[in-house]
Amino acid sequence: MKEVSKLINYYHILQVEEGAKDEEIKNSFRKLVKEYHPDRHMTTGVCADEKIKLLIEAYKTLTDTGKKNLYDSLLSATKTARDTRHRYTSEKDTSSTGFLVRQILNDLLNKKGAQAIKSYERLRSANKECDLLVLLGLKDYVDCMFLLAEEYERQGAYELSFKWYEHVYTKAEKNLARKHLRGEIKERIIRLSCKNLFKSVQPNSAITYFKKVLALELNKNEEALVYKKIADCYLTLGDWNGSMVNFNKALTIYPNLKGTQKLRKKLHDHFLKKNISHKFAPFQYAQSSS
Fold first, then answer.
1. Are 36 and 52 in contact (CB under 8 A)?
2. CA distances (Å), 141 to each of 4, 32, 155, 168, 262, in order?
3. Cα–Cα distance between 78 and 286 in angstroms, integer?
């Protein structure tokens, strides 16, 4: 799916009503693919190949439950922002807080993330008591903060991104229309922690973030991965016992966790060299991890 802030109406592309069922989407897709097949003709001003690519993109998004849920929520937010735009732009005082907050959301929804971040930080600096939740309502607030977190991540501000993803994860639970976003947000938080924060912050700070991740609703594989990353951090700090304990937790939760071989060998060699029989020995597990 395209960047979430770049919203094309995929329902219009596939010529179906918004909220259409899978079968209707599939039938319309097949019909349109035949109609715009490159061997038949060129569309008006648009290459048939490009039209087919757009149809496929729309089809893949609307027939994937996770992608469709995220897309539908952001499409709804775009419409809300568009519907209220005239009301806010018609206000005499365009410097009002309400107008500025709506403008931030509009910028986020219209691929102006950098401008939105500048406006948001300027607003927070000038008015620390500003409550976006009150001004936007829970539904739009969740969308706004989700897109802010996404933009901070894009800009490499990983700690701020983590802060707002975590915040939105909690807020989304309180809004049924946005509750389905929690799975998407959780995946982003895990990715952000394990790939970006793990490499960009000090090990002690990384451990703090990982412990916050453990408070999310994780499956066994995800939970084991986080404990393994904590073990890596302790190893970097030279805390072999801390590393061993957390590595053992990871393997206890999910014995077939992948990517453990290097850490396993380091711990094994260290304790073997020290001639220590550690009660938390992960070496009892079959070395099937890669």
1. yes
2. 16, 37, 21, 9, 43
3. 51
Residue range 1-63, CATH number: 1.10.287.110
Lookup: tokens for 101: 């907050």
Global confidence as pTM: 0.64
Alpha-helix residue ranges (DSSP H) falling in 6-47: 10-13, 22-35
**257-269 per-position pLDDT tens digit:** 999 999 999 998 8
Which tokens in the block code for residue 137?
């309502």
Using CA atoms, how far apart are residues 288 and 42, in angstroms rounded to an integer? 54
CA 220/CA 234 separation, integer angstroms: 21
Report the alpha-carbon distance of residue 110 to residue 108 in Å, rounded.
Answer: 5
Tens digits of residue pLDDT in 117-172: 999 999 888 887 888 888 888 888 888 999 999 999 999 999 999 999 999 998 88
Q: Where are the alpha helices (DSSP H) in 36-112?
A: 48-62, 65-89, 97-109
